[in-house]
Design goal:
Helix content is 14%, strand content 34%. The chain is α+β, with helices and mostly antiparallel strands. Bound molecules: iron/sulfur cluster.
Length: 526
Amino acid sequence: MTEHEHTKTDGLGDAVPVADPWQARPRNERMAAHKIECNACPVLCQISEGKVGACDRYANQAGVLVRLDPVLLVRRTVEQGQGELVPFVESGVAADGELESADEPIFVTAVGSSTTYPDYKPAPFIVSSLVAGVDMVTVVTEGIFSYCSLKVKIDTDRWLGPEQANVRCKGEVVGHVTTAEYGSQMLSLGGVHHITGGSKKEGRVTVDMMLALGNKQAVDFTIDGGATLRVQAGRAPVVDGVEERRMRVGCGSATVGIFAEQFKGLVDEVVVVDDHITGVLTEHQAGHCLDMRPAGLQVRGRKSTPGRYFQVANPGTGWGGTDISDPLSIVESFDPAVAWPGQRLLMVSTTGEHSAWYLLDEHLVPQPAPMPDEVQQIVDRIGENCEPSLCTVLFVGGAGGSLRAGVTENPVLLTRAIKAALVNVTCGGAPAYVWPGGGITVMVDVMRMPDQSFGTVPTPAIVAPIEFTMKLSDYHALGGHMGYVRPLSQVLATGAWHHDGAPTARRFIAGAPGNPWPLASGPLLG
Ligand code: SF4
C-alpha cells in the first residue's frame, strides 16, 4: 500500500485498499526540509521537527505530523483500563492486546480526533457498529467554529449589570448581559462579532475565554455599570468577590404564597424583599384567602397587583437582589387607622439569607426584637428550599458549514437528515440540542462533555468535538463517504483512516452521569 492509500470496507465487510483522494500538499514549496506543514486549519503552520504548531495540538514528530491529544472513547461500562493511554498501532489488533468486539459498547468521541480541513477531507473516524441488531455508523470529527458562543446562566438575584451591558474579560468586550430569568441572570459570551469582527486582541481574548469556560475553568469578568464576576461551569458564581450560595426559592410574591399558611398565627405581616416582585402578605391574595387582618403597611415602589410591588429599590447585591441593607428603607408608612402597637413584622429576602423581626411600638415605629423560634424555623425553611447557585455554560456552535463535507458529498442531505431526526448529534458523546430552522446549530452543556474537550486555533476559532450517529442505510442514502466506513475493531486498532495529522493514541473515559448512550437514542432505533 502506498502512503496515500487506505483501507476501504464499504462499511459492510471486506477491506480493500483504495487510493487516498486527499493528500497533504504544502503550500510553500520552498519550505525548509526539516519542516512540515500542518493543514488541519487555515493557519497552515510550518512546524520544525520536535516542535508543535501554533495551537499546541499538532506536532512534528520525527518528520511526521501528529495530533497530540489522545482520542477519547467512552465505554458504556468502564471497569478496566479507564484513563490509560493506548497507542494506535497498525497491527490489526488493539495495542493493549485486547481485541475489542464490534458489539462492545464503545463510543468514539471526536475529542482529539482531528478535523476535516480543508473541508472536503472525509472525517477522520467513520465508525460502523452493530447496535441491537442494527448497523449503525458514527461520523466523528473536530469542528473549527468561528460562529460559536457560550450561553451562560448565573444563578443569582444579585445585580450583575444592566441588560445589554458589555461583559469584559481582560479589558476586552467579549459578550453582553442578556435577559434575567427566574432566579438567574443570563450572559451571552463570545460569538463571531467578538471572535473575528473586532480587533485582533479582542478575538484572541474571546477565544481564550471560551476555551477556558468550555474546559470548565474559572474566568473573571467585569460588567460595564455592574459587578465583577467569576464564572466556572458547575460551580457557584462569585459576585463582587462574594461566592453566591443560594438560588432564591421564588420571587417575593411566590415566597409569600408558598409559606403563607405557615406564617399565619405567628406573624401579623411579612414582607419578602425582592428586586423583581416584593410580596406583602396581608395584602397579597394568599393573606386575603387565609383571612389575615390587614396590617396597614405601605411599601415603596410600583404596585402591580394586591400585595405585589415592583421597583421597591434599585437593583444591587443587598437584600433580595436590591441595593438595600436596611429593610425598613423600603417601608413607606404604617396606616394609623389600620396598624396597631405590638404588631409583629417579619422582613425576609427570597433566599432567607437576610431576615429581621420587628414589633411596632406605641408610635407605630418598628423596633428590632429577637425573632421567635417558630418564625426562625420558617425563615430556615425558605433557605432549605433554595437550590445551590451554579454557573451553567452551554456551547452553541454552527455546524452547518464546511465540516458537513467531511460527512457527505452532498451536505444539505445531512442537514435534512438531522431535521428529520434520523441523526443523533453529540459533542464529545454529550447530547446536543439542534436548533430548529436552517443550518445545524447545536447547543450542549459543557459539563456533560469530557474534560478538555475544546481547543483553539489562531484564525481565531474554537475547536470542538462533534459526532453524527445514524443507521448505516441512512448514511448511505445521504451520500456518506461509504468507502471510509470502518468497523470499530479496526478503528481501535489502527486509528484514523489517514495518518497525516492523525492522533497516535486513544484513552477510555466514563461518560458524564446521566448522558444517554449516544448509539442508542430513541429515533435511531425506532
Ligand atoms: S494552528 Fe494548529 S491546526 Fe492550525 S495549522 Fe497550526 S498546528 Fe495545524
